Amino acid sequence: QTVVTQEPSLTVSPGGTVTLTCASGTGPVTSGDYPNWFQQRPGQAPRPLIYSTNNRHSWTPARFSGSLFGGKAALTLSGAQPEDEAEYYCLLYFGPARVEFGAGTRLTVL
Amino acid sequence: QVQLQESGPGLVKPSETLSLTCNVSGGSISSYYWHWVRQPAGKGLEWIGRIYATGDTNYNSSLKSRVTMSVAPSKSKVFLSLSSVTAADTAVYYCAREYYNLLTGHYIWDFWGQGALVTVSS
Asked: B51, B34 in Cβ contact below 8 A?
């Protein structure tokens, strides 16, 4: 089983900017790994935020953006809001038929 | 609006089989992949596997020997079966939809159900 690694926790000030990353145990993350990002608030189901590295869903606030940086997938939040406090999960594809979630990053807005 | 709703017994005895249904409304089963993902309390998400509308499946290798997924397109339902359960299988189980956009080459997860809590206990 490949390991997908995320920061366990991060803190951002209201209005601030923070970047969450997602690394693969098999090597650099590329666009061919189709990184997806999900937000999960306590007691709720995961909500898709970003697909295929940097594409927002229609419901994803513009303050969220996805990219590749330093061999990792990255989710950047610019202008953090209190409602952005949540757990964030990345998902990577290992070939077309297998996916794996990262362990999640708990983001605190404080 | 597409909605997914998981249902099934909330309590399963050890060594028995866990069976869940994902009811899809507001859209067709066809042309999509349907995933099952689980989450133990206080822990992260674990991919169980996926099934295409035609019945083709891919499973997490760690669960493959115990997992069976199936679809009933005419009934807009997707099914999960997990055999020989133990306490380690206690979790919230989610179904989720994915589609592959041929034009853009993107794999897109878009809708999730609210999840069903399954407890394995005697």
From this structure: yes
Neighboring chain B residues of A103 at a CB cutoff of 8 Å: 44
Tokens, residue B19: 């069976």
CB proximity B11 to A under 8 Å: no
Residue of B nearest to A45 (CA): B114
Yes or no, beta carbons of A45 and B110 under 8 Å apart: no
Higher pLDDT among residues B101 and A7, named by residue: A7
Give the minimum alpha-carbon distance from A65 to chain B in angstroms, rounded to a whole number: 16
Q: Is B113 on the interface with A (CB under 8 A)?
A: yes
With helix as H, strand as E and coil as C, how does chain B read?
CCEEEEECCCEECCCCCEEEEEEEECCCCCCCEEEEEEECCCCCCEEEEEEECCCCEEECCCCCCCEEEEEEHHHCEEEEEECCCCHHHCEEEEEEEEEEECCCCEEEEEEECCCEEEEECC
CB contact under 8 A, A45 and B58: no
State residue B73's pLDDT score: 82
Which residues of chain B neighbour A99 with C-beta distances below 8 Å? 35, 47, 50
Nearest to A30, CA basis, from A88, A104, A95: A95
Give the Cα separation of B117 and B91 in Å (integer): 6
Q: How many CA atoms lie within 13 A of A66 on its CB side?
A: 27
**Dist. CA B59–CA B62, nearest whole Å:** 8
Instruction: Write the pLDDT tens digit of every residue in B39-81.
Output: 999 999 999 999 999 999 999 999 999 999 999 988 899 999 9
